[in-house]
Amino acid sequence: MRLSIKAPAKINLSLDVLYKRPDGYHEVKMVMTTIDLADRIELVALPEEDAIRIVSQNRFVPDDCRNLAYQAAKLLKETFSIRQGVAISITKHIPVAAGLAGGSSDAAATLRGLNKLWQLGLTLDELAELGAKIGSDVAFCVYGGTALATGRGEVITPIASPPPCWVVLAKPPIGVSTAEVYRNLELERVSHPDVDAMVRAIERQDYAAICRLVGNVLEEVTLKKYPEVAHIKEQMKRFGADAVLMSGSGPTVFGLIEHDSRMQRVYNGLRGFCDQVFAVRMLGERHSLD
Ligand SMILES: C[C@@](CO)(OP(=O)(O)O)[C@H](O)COP(=O)(O)OP(=O)(O)OC[C@H]1O[C@@H](n2ccc(N)nc2=O)[C@H](O)[C@@H]1O
Ligand SMILES: Nc1ncnc2c1ncn2[C@@H]1O[C@H](COP(=O)(O)OP(=O)(O)O)[C@@H](O)[C@H]1O
């Protein structure tokens, strides 16, 4: 049996860090939404072989136990004593180590897919709880859609989808370590975005307010280390994006744009100096991801 599952990227429209917790993680409060930039995960049952095989053509993606999709399969196998194997083929479209949760989304898609392939009958809530053991962003990726994420990112409250608009993404040719960005965050110095106001703006479909309220406390850390991220932000603003922000720990920058012609101008302008540029829609609500 064979299954193909879509694994979409996320962006953080608002990202606040409240404090460092005794367990070493940071307490966060953020608004996340899935976008139509996705990896494709193909699962093939290996009934005769008790192994997890990862196939990926991307040289930045590990093909062993370091792969988050591998860890998802292993977790399900061990938790439910599954005695058969699976081949997981990952076609990457989401840039790696980019602040877009590509690896987390691959893990979440693997959880959703294996739930079907192995007929486990788990709910999304149960899959999300398992996913949180793999990484903080995996729970959100299990559901997709738009949500307020709290705790270390694994406590998910669904909210309305933002009004439709374009999302133009540009990733400079650097990879960022999430752990390092959190480590270098100086909480007493940052200005905090108003996450509750962002949730309210989304609930009342107020595009202008959403654009005004975007904010990310991690931006300062990454911008300081990589001036090219600040440069992309400036250019995106200059070409006419309605709002511009770094996603997650970066380095990807996204712009929100309402009108098609403006989107084209921003996209073409960025392509002039940046290799990885995408223009996509938000996916909005929780939906059938497969
Ligand atoms: C910053 C965010 C925003 O959505 O996304 P990315 O930039 O990774 O996409 C997330 O908080 C990233 O979540 P995720 O990438 O799943 O992180 P994890 O694997 O759980 O943790 C990696 C490391 O980041 C730090 N970490 C992560 C989450 C958190 N709430 N506090 C932390 O301090 C810890 O040092 C941890 O060891
Ligand atoms: N399936 C996967 N896809 C991408 N990266 C993965 C995957 N599994 C493990 N990784 C590792 O996780 C790290 C972070 O990747 P990714 O999830 O793309 O970034 P981010 O956390 O910034 O959103 C990468 O450096 C990579 O080595």
Overview of the structural elements:
The structure is a single chain. The protein has helices at residues 68-79, 102-117, 124-131, 138-143, 178-183, 195-203, 207-213, 219-225, 227-239, 260-271; strands at residues 2-20, 26-46, 52-56, 85-91, 146-150, 155-158, 166-171, 215-216, 243-246, 253-257, 276-281. It is α+β, with helices and mostly antiparallel strands. The strands form two sheets. Strands 1, 2, 3, 4, 5, 6 and 8 form a seven-stranded mixed β-sheet that branches. The protein has a four-stranded antiparallel β-sheet with strand order 9-10-7-11, with helices on both faces. It contains ten helices and eleven strands. Strand 3 (52-56), helix 1 and strand 4 form a beta-alpha-beta unit. The structure holds 4-diphosphocytidyl-2-C-methyl-D-erythritol 2-phosphate (SUD) and adenosine-5'-diphosphate (ADP). 4-diphosphocytidyl-2-C-methyl-D-erythritol 2-phosphate binds at residues 12, 15, 25-26, 28, 99, 101, 104, 135-137, 152-153, 178-179, 182, 248-249. Its EC number is 2.7.1.148. Catalyzes the phosphorylation of the position 2 hydroxy group of 4-diphosphocytidyl-2C-methyl-D-erythritol. Residues 198-274 form the GHMP kinase C-terminal domain. InterPro entries: GHMP_kinase_C_dom, GHMP_kinase_C_sf, GHMP_kinase_N_dom, IspE, Ribosomal_Su5_D2-typ_SF, Ribsml_uS5_D2-typ_fold_subgr.
